[in-house]
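Study this chain:
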Amino acid sequence: METFQIRHILRSLCALMVAVAALSSSERRTVEGVIFGPDASLLSLTLEQQRVAYRNLRLLAPHNLVARGQTVAPLPEAPIDLKGFTYNYQKRKRSLTDFLAETRVAGFLVIKDGHVVVEKYAHGHGPASVWVSFSIAKSVLSLLYGAALQDGSIGSLDDSVTRYLPQLRGSAYDDVKLRQLLQMLLERSSE
């Protein structure tokens, strides 16, 4: 990965890490027929609001888009027929569709030997749905820190955050090191 790409991704993900959980709006909004009040917060959404907000966050809160690279690795399909698949839970036979509905899973993907063998969606989602990554970003960011260190995009985990996000100068992040930001991520992900 080119140095510019890693640096751009790091900046975007660092900005995401310091973002507030509140949805930024002082007015009531309606998205897909669901109302979001002026005090809406990701931490206090109803289940119906979550279903809509998580795939439409770009309409509700500030965000950074991270473009995919120019070279994209193929993910070939080798579908398995699961029409007859069932399992027993609490003395009842259930299907994959039952599982998705009962657990409120939006997407279900199984990759085996580098091939997509199962790909199912529920609750109004599909292959083109955008979804908030939440804690997945923590793992990706940790990997990117390592890659950025190895290729020299960042000099040290002891560099200041403001070296890479100068717009945070003059804020509480003036004396924060990249290492501390990464440790905050790891500590929060273990909660």
